[in-house]
Amino acid sequence: MSWQAYTDNLLATGKIDKAVLYSRAGDAVWASSGGLALAATEISGIAQGFDDPSHLQSNGLHIQGQKFMMLRADDRSIYGRHDAEGVVCVRTKQTILVAHYPATVQAGEATKIVEQLADYLISVQY
C-alpha cells in the first residue's frame, strides 16, 4: 500500500476531514489528503513537542495558522482542540500522523481511528 492510501483511508472513515503523514523528523511529507498542509514551523513544533511539550503547552498547537488548545502531549500523542473541531497527532517509529476532525465528530471517535492506524504502523515497524 502506498503512503497516500493511509491518509485517504483516514478520510474514508468519515470521522477525519484532513490528514497528513510526515517523516518522524517532520522534514518530509509522505502523503496528504483533504488539503492539510503544515508550515515548517508548525510541523517542527509538533515533532519537538513529542519530546518536550513545554513550548506547545505555553504557546498552543498551530495547524494551518489556527491555534489549537493542547489537551494532551506525551511521547506518542498530541491532541488539540479549537472550538468544536480538533487535531490528533501521533508519532510512530518512522512517521508523524496529523489528522483533523470537524465539529460534527466526537473527539474520541477521531482519536480512536488515528491511534489504531498508528498502532498498525508500529506493528509493521513504521
From TrEMBL:
<comment type="similarity">
    <text>Belongs to the profilin family.</text>
</comment>
<dbReference type="InterPro" id="IPR005455">
    <property type="entry name" value="PFN_euk"/>
</dbReference>
<protein>
    <recommendedName>
        <fullName>Profilin</fullName>
    </recommendedName>
</protein>
<comment type="subunit">
    <text>Occurs in many kinds of cells as a complex with monomeric actin in a 1:1 ratio.</text>
</comment>
<dbReference type="GO" id="GO:0005938">
    <property type="term" value="C:cell cortex"/>
</dbReference>
<dbReference type="GO" id="GO:0140311">
    <property type="term" value="F:protein sequestering activity"/>
</dbReference>
<dbReference type="GO" id="GO:1903475">
    <property type="term" value="P:mitotic actomyosin contractile ring assembly"/>
</dbReference>
<dbReference type="GO" id="GO:0005856">
    <property type="term" value="C:cytoskeleton"/>
</dbReference>
<dbReference type="Pfam" id="PF00235">
    <property type="entry name" value="Profilin"/>
</dbReference>
<dbReference type="InterPro" id="IPR036140">
    <property type="entry name" value="PFN_sf"/>
</dbReference>
<dbReference type="GO" id="GO:0005829">
    <property type="term" value="C:cytosol"/>
</dbReference>
<dbReference type="InterPro" id="IPR048278">
    <property type="entry name" value="PFN"/>
</dbReference>
<keyword id="KW-0963">Cytoplasm</keyword>
<dbReference type="GO" id="GO:0070064">
    <property type="term" value="F:proline-rich region binding"/>
</dbReference>
<keyword id="KW-0009">Actin-binding</keyword>
<dbReference type="GO" id="GO:0090338">
    <property type="term" value="P:positive regulation of formin-nucleated actin cable assembly"/>
</dbReference>
<dbReference type="GO" id="GO:0003785">
    <property type="term" value="F:actin monomer binding"/>
</dbReference>
<dbReference type="GO" id="GO:0005546">
    <property type="term" value="F:phosphatidylinositol-4,5-bisphosphate binding"/>
</dbReference>
<keyword id="KW-0206">Cytoskeleton</keyword>
<comment type="function">
    <text>Binds to actin and affects the structure of the cytoskeleton. At high concentrations, profilin prevents the polymerization of actin, whereas it enhances it at low concentrations.</text>
</comment>
<dbReference type="InterPro" id="IPR027310">
    <property type="entry name" value="Profilin_CS"/>
</dbReference>
